[in-house]
């Protein structure tokens, strides 16, 4: 009960005017700017930006996000209103709307056309539960900046209520958004990037898996042929459900990576309200997933402080350094699966087709 009250308090206090979108005139000296492509299934409800209501059709746009100079790696301060200090908070500085899927695909191409083919990667980020439009866009920008992503970053913004009491609404919105994410993935493929990396966080991982399963039924093998990797971060997904989804694939896209932590308080709360069913992101062993060719990466040792510890991958400076561009782990995943296991850092445990990697901050001292 104590854990429940602490976790619920943390989630509840994160909700103020969550739908406000902070804007500014441009990045400050010492800051940076990231362009984020966005496909949104949120309704604007007559406002300039997007709410938590569900739209019938996708909106396509891109936004320029100013990265504040006064921040540490992994830090993303939550805004409370539209008027914020751009030295400390992320802000949007510009916006471009696109009137069709074709125009959006062309915009993806244009973002990468001046890069060498080896850098023309498209990363698609699907946010989790209790996220506003700005929350998801700013998280995508923070990851693009901190992980030094050289290609393009696309954010799929599904209609979360951005309210800690909106868990059921958000789960329904996940199912509502499957067709929208499929259309976004197909638009991304039309842009012909070198590879597409699909990332889901929290409840967004359910949307990722449901959408890929849906595509697999209609176009067997599409995900494996089209995607250059799938990453599930802190998945708020029932283990049995994930197994059923994964069994629908002839082959899972590779690499297929799941980040887990036994210190994720948000997932502990989710397990409690879901009848004490274990969540995929809380697994401590790859044994239950041994039939699948995937990699389970345990980041429990990087959890610090009293927060939910629900996005350690993107908030821990030490872990970002281990996972970032040019890192040993990144290089290992650039190899084919047969060579990968011998290159992975940390403690590596094999369970039939699955691999478990336990990472530690001590890797930075080696």
Automatic annotation (TrEMBL):
Superkingdom assignment: Bacteria
Name of the protein in its database record: Esterase of the alpha/beta hydrolase fold protein
SUPFAM superfamilies assigned to the protein according to its UniProt record, in alphabetical order: alpha/beta-Hydrolases (SSF53474)
PROSITE patterns: PROKAR_LIPOPROTEIN
One Pfam family it belongs to: DUF900
GO MF term (any one): hydrolase activity
Signal peptide from the UniProt entry: 1-20
Hydrolase in keyword set: yes
Organism: Thalassovita autumnalis
Alphabetized UniProt keyword annotations: Hydrolase, Signal
Keyword Hydrolase set for record: yes
